[in-house]
Write a structure and sequence with these properties.
There is one protein chain. The chain is of the alpha/beta class. The protein has one domain: Glutaconate Coenzyme A-transferase, CATH 3.40.1080. The protein has four helices and 13 strands. The protein has a ten-stranded mixed sheet with strand order 4-3-2-1-5-8-10-11-12-13. It has a three-stranded mixed sheet with strand order 7-6-9, with no helix packed on it. Helix 2 runs parallel beside helix 3. It starts with a helix and ends in a 10-residue tail after the last strand.
């Protein structure tokens, strides 16, 4: 299976706006830090206590004491600040985070999200997912369209334990971009490698097509968008 994670991260980064305070979740979302458009100043917050996260450093410049909530090496931008996790969660719960980019195991056609537990498997903990999804003003899900074994993630209803109900605003996969309007799933964009019928075949969730629907060409090099 082709690895589209960098494309998903790049496309999710296009949804960030100048001045946004953004928290990046574990998995694909952490890659978003490397794809923020150069003409936008975005302030990345990590729940372990930093505001002003920069892109991933090269291996020779990584500092084991400078990591994000995923325990991955980061850089810091000029003006970055540090604080304890209690204040970090207060920012998230208090509505001070503009957007969160978060991964998902399942998303329903109403915007429900399940991303913290798989029935029958060990649960490591929910982390800050519930706090972020409810506290952030905009929730962007960045995930593959299908599981590694080809099962759909976008469903009429989630079958895994829910993280939150009807909280997803934007959903970005390697094939499409959806928005949720009044708890209804709307297709905004689809890559030119698929037909609409093919997309519907791999998407059990019901969705309508936006009046502003567009076909997008996947960039060969997401880092520069070309």
């Amino acid at each position: 299976m082709t690895d589209y994670r960098n494309y998903i991260a790049w496309r999710a980064a296009q949804e960030l706006e100048n001045g946004d305070i953004v928290n990046l979740g574990i998995g694909i979302p952490v890659l978003v830090a490397d794809y923020i458009p150069s003409d936008r100043q975005v302030f990345l917050q990590s729940e372990n206590g930093i505001l002003g996260v920069g892109p991933t450093p090269p291996p020779e410049r990584s500092d084991p004491d400078l990591i994000n909530a995923s325990k991955l090496p980061i850089t810091e931008l000029p003006g970055a600040s540090y604080f304890d996790s209690a204040l970090s969660f207060a920012m998230m719960r208090g509505g001070h985070v503009d957007k969160t980019v978060i991964g998902a195991l399942q998303v329903s056609e109403r915007g429900d999200i399940a991303n913290w537990a798989v029935p029958g498997k060990d649960v490591l903990g929910v982390g800050g997912a519930m706090d972020l999804i409810v506290g952030a003003r905009t929730v962007i899900v960045a995930t593959t369209h299908l599981t590694p074994d080809g099962k759909p993630k976008l469903l009429p209803s989630c079958t895994y334990p829910l993280t939150a109900k009807e909280e997803v605003d934007i959903l970005v996969t390697e094939f499409a971009v959806f928005r949720f309007v009044d708890s209804k799933m709307v297709l905004e964009e689809m890559v030119d490698e698929l037909t609409l019928d093919q997309l519907r075949e791999m998407t059990p969730a019901h969705f309508s097509v936006s009046d502003s629907f567009r076909i997008a060409k996947r960039p060969k090099n997401p880092r520069i968008g070309a």
